[in-house]
Write a structure and sequence with these properties.
single chain; 230 residues; alpha/beta; DNA polymerase, domain 1; 2 domains; six-stranded parallel sheet; 9 helices; 6 strands; HAD_sf; PGP-like_dom2; HAD-like_sf; Noncanonical pyrimidine nucleotidase, YjjG family; 5'-nucleotidase activity
Length: 230
């Protein structure tokens, strides 16, 4: 089922092209080693990952600030593993974690192959809720920045996906129309519903195999499956 009339392809970055979980784990290992934090990293990450998802949802909903997100996800994780830590050290970890993230550049399988395929047919762009100060560095480190004409961050717009202002701003910047644009992302709420709400097409990158069945958009488990649609 090829989608006709598409001219602009917008990608989410984290969890869609850039392997956030793998790179995040490596960044934490580097921080913990540097700060001589001796708790078991695997146990910490089992607590941190779901907390991080919860706080990103609150952040998207404008219920916590960026600073609260960075502090609370760490504080609650350390508390859960019974590790006593000062607020000053939490602040250091939060800063170094963000600084170290772009040092790691793991991408999802077939990222280069699908971007090489798509760049010949479409204009490619990024729409991300990630922090503006590190998203470009991530893309430079993983050698994918050159594929994209426009990179739109929620920081630059002042609101976050799924707010329609983000998508409308992205369409305007890219000189694109909603009917000839498609959004590809992992988050049904932020990426897919947000795009559909402004009249864009959407494809859900369902890499974790969630039970998502919705007639309004296709769902794929591998980036290579995009060739069936684009």
């Amino acid at each position: 089922m090829e989608m006709k009339h598409i001219q602009h392809v917008f990608f989410d970055l984290d969890h869609t092209l850039w392997d956030f979980e793998k790179n995040s784990d490596l960044a934490f290992k580097k921080v913990f080693d540097k700060q001589n934090i001796t708790i078991d990293l695997t146990s910490f990450l089992e607590i941190y990952r779901p907390l991080n998802h919860q706080y990103w949802k609150l952040y998207r909903e404008e219920k916590v600030t960026k600073e609260e997100l960075r502090y609370q996800r760490l504080k609650k994780s350390f508390d859960a593993v019974n590790f006593t830590i000062s607020d000053d050290l939490i602040d250091v970890i939060a800063i170094e974690y963000v600084e170290f993230m772009p040092d790691f550049n793991h991408l999802f399988e077939h990222t280069f192959e699908i971007l090489d395929y798509l760049k010949e047919k479409y204009q490619l762009h990024i729409i991300t809720n990630g922090f503006e100060e590190i998203q470009t560095k991530k893309m430079q480190s993983s050698n994918i920045l050159h594929y994209f004409k426009e990179v739109i961050t929620s920081d630059s717009v002042g609101v976050k996906k799924p707010n329609p202002k983000v998508f409308n701003f992205a369409l305007e910047v890219a000189n694109a129309k909603n009917e000839n644009s498609i959004m590809i992302g992992d988050n049904v709420e932020a990426d897919i519903q947000g795009a559909i709400d402004v009249g864009m097409h959407a494809i859900h990158f369902n890499f974790i195999g969630e039970n998502v069945i919705d007639s309004r958009f296709p769902s794929i488990k591998s980036l290579l499956e995009l060739k069936q649609y684009l």
